[in-house]
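Exercise: predict the structure of this protein bound to magnesium ion.
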Amino acid sequence: MNKNELIEKAKNHLEKLIEEQFSRIEMMKKDAGWVDYKTLKPIIIGVCWGDGIGRIISKHAQRVLEHTLRSEIKAGMVEFRVIEGLTIENRVSHGEAIPRDVLKEIKACHVILKGPTTTPQEGDKWPNIESANVAMRKELDLFANVRPVKIPSEGIDWCFFRENTEGAYVLGSRGIDVNEDLSLDFKVATTQGAERIIRLAFEYAKNNGRKKVTVVTKANVVKTTDGKFSRIAKKIAEEYKSFGITSDEWYIDIMTAKLIDPARRKDFEVLVMPNLYGDILTDEAAQLQGGVGTAGSANIGKKWAMFEAIHGSAPRMVDEGRDIYADPSSMIRAAAMLVRHIGFPERADRLDKALEVCCQFEKKFVITGRDTGATGEEFTTYLLDWARNENLEKEWQKFSGAV
Ligand code: IPM
Ligand code: MG
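Solution:
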């Protein structure tokens, strides 16, 4: 192709992307409102086990969930459905990030507990299909990726609000190799998309007695998309001043440094940011809490919500026969978030506290990821024993120094 033909090809590609984003904006403008779980009988929980260690750790989380919601299950108020087809083998055999019939099953549920799924990269043994996570976030319009990180002994109680349907991700599989020398990716920000995630972060602060919302961008360099995010955040922050909530803005590079600065990090409370920065920052935050294997994540939309670990499927652990030693606490955190989301906050608090006692304080069964530590099953039994223990609250207070 000559230069003009290459430019024409790129223009056509971009035109299609812009049209799709315009339709997405129209959809966001229609806004059907939030689902009310109290009106759903039963609430249907779909479980996708995923790949790699997901096949093991999501079953442990399912066990915790079934225990926590046992009376509702018995009363027919909550129903579980296992959805088998979200495996890399099935996805590859259909050549789709989420095969159509699997997506239909997922959409027939109200909330999903999802184990880690393999995300191929060029050069892997799998074809380079789109990530199932990213596809599900887009398909179900799960715009808020909410990731709490808690270190009670340090007074750290962070809640990250990662934008989940735009940024560098939404067109991450739709970039273009214009020719062999020039490759372009696209980063997207919309007014509606930025507003809804930023507003959700401020609402969370308001409803949970938090006093500060930190906005993370690189708006000094990425001037258009991050510039929009920053501008909208400033406007929304004005509205929340009267609730005693302050707001500040940090660039992503210095933010990653401040998170490991013990003198400053406990000052952060609620943080909101575009997609890719949230991906990176939440792995760093999780590492401070004890590793990515300890952190859960809620992907929230107005109609559906999906709960998962923040990490991947760790195929290496499976290859080395270490999958039974994988840490299920990320998926159990996700299960606790699911329990909270569908309307049982006290039970979710108990699970969170039991996790903190088991992972950060008492540590009777420690997961090391190898046979030097406990298996995921032993850990789950230990966790459930604490969740049932009537002294949990008292012991948690004692362990955490009652911060
Ligand atoms: C996460 C993961 C995913 C992401 C991958 C598996 C696509 O890293 O949930 O943070 O990048 O969002
Ligand atoms: Mg990540």
